[in-house]
Amino acid sequence: MSSSDEIQEKPPRAERLDGYVIRSSTPDDAVAITALANLPGYRYGTLRLPYQTVAETRQYLENPAPGAKKLVADMDGVIIGDIFLGPLQGRRRHVGTIGMGVHDDFVGRGVGSALMKAAIDLADNWLNLHRLELDVFTDNHDAIRLYERYGFVIEGHLRDDAFRDGHYVDAYAMARLRT
């Protein structure tokens, strides 16, 4: 069998990760969250700009939007993932928006799943949110699969939605309705 006839297999998936906790973020996490936000893989999947400063992160943590919840996956003081849940107001107070990311070295090890479970529990069982919304870049296949596992469906295709790394990129608008 020639090398061109061989089937290329994906490398084995990393072991699921133990030893971290999901908790609410605090202003004391500003340095660790800034380090997370400045990782190239994390940033590539979010709307964050390069070179985020600790001062910018601290400002965000000290002045959250009304009702906003920011959770982190903390492994011995290293923030390996975070998720934002922002309930809306007025006639959309039944809706929450989600944004999340996982540390480049911990992707595919259950951190995103743990963060999503915690945010959905908070939304469904404590905040009485009926609808959760998020946007995801169309080339972020791992994140799309994660969101679909938790009941999110693609509701729209946002063309040239964001400018990333010198190019416009598309995103999907996804949502989950509590049943």
Automatic annotation (TrEMBL):
Q: Which domain of life is it from?
A: Bacteria
Indicate the segments forming the N-acetyltransferase domain, all copies: 20-179
Please give the PROSITE patterns that the UniProt record associates with this protein: GNAT
| CDD domains, per database record | NAT_SF
Is Transferase a UniProt keyword of this protein? yes
Give UniProt keywords alphabetically.
Answer: Acyltransferase, Transferase
- The record's EC number reads 2.3.1.-
Q: Which GO terms describe its molecular function?
A: acyltransferase activity, transferring groups other than amino-acyl groups
Matching entries from PANTHER family are given as: GNAT-FAMILY ACETYLTRANSFERASE, SPERMIDINE N(1)-ACETYLTRANSFERASE
Q: What is this protein called?
A: Putative acetyltransferase
